[in-house]
């Protein structure tokens, strides 16, 4: 059972770390203008997709929240690796996925507001 716990914990830890890294790397590339507006990668809300200026402005605003993504990833990595049972690893994994979704929604709201402001729209 210990080997199963270790395997699942390691898999989830790597997943959380990669997810946090990818979110930060993608946002940084979009905020710097290296990742152009597209239909596949980045914060793709109606307001961020409106123009290139809105795209960059939204991602620059979201960049300020990237430490939160990194802290979430590192915290969850440590939590799953320190969990004593495979059941707790699963619970942390489910909770961790929910936390990532909440942080992503908050980030999208911040990006959307900044994109609207860049286009001269209210709120």
What does this structure look like?
This protein is an all-alpha fold. It has one domain. It has 4 helices and no strands. The longest helix is centred in the C-terminal third of the chain and has 33 residues.
For this entry, give a set of tags.
4 helices; about 120 residues; mainly alpha; about 75% helix
Number of domains: 1
Query: Whole-Å distance between the termini?
Result: 52 Å
Number of strands: 0
Biggest pleated sheet: none
The unreliable regions are: none
Instruction: Return the average pLDDT rounded to an integer.
Output: 93
Elements, N to C (H/E): HHHH
State the share of residues found in helices, binned by percent. over 70%
SS summary, helix count: 4
Given the helix and strand composition, which structural class is it? mainly alpha
Radius of gyration: 17 Å
**Principal-axes shape call:** elongated
Strand content: under 5%
Topology:
Layout: H1 2-31, H2 52-63, H3 66-82, H4 86-118
């Amino acid at each position: 059972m210990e080997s199963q716990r270790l395997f699942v914990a390691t898999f989830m830890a790597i997943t959380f770390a990669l997810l946090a890294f990818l979110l930060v790397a993608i946002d940084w590339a979009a905020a710097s203008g290296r990742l152009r507006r597209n239909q596949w990668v980045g914060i793709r809300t109606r307001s961020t997709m409106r123009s290139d200026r809105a795209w960059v402005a939204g991602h620059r605003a979201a960049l300020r929240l990237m430490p939160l993504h990194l802290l979430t990833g590192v915290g969850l990595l440590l939590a799953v690796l320190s969990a004593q049972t495979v059941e707790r690893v699963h619970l942390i994994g489910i909770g961790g996925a929910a936390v990532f979704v909440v942080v992503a929604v908050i980030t999208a709201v911040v990006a959307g507001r900044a994109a609207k402001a860049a286009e001269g729209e209210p709120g």
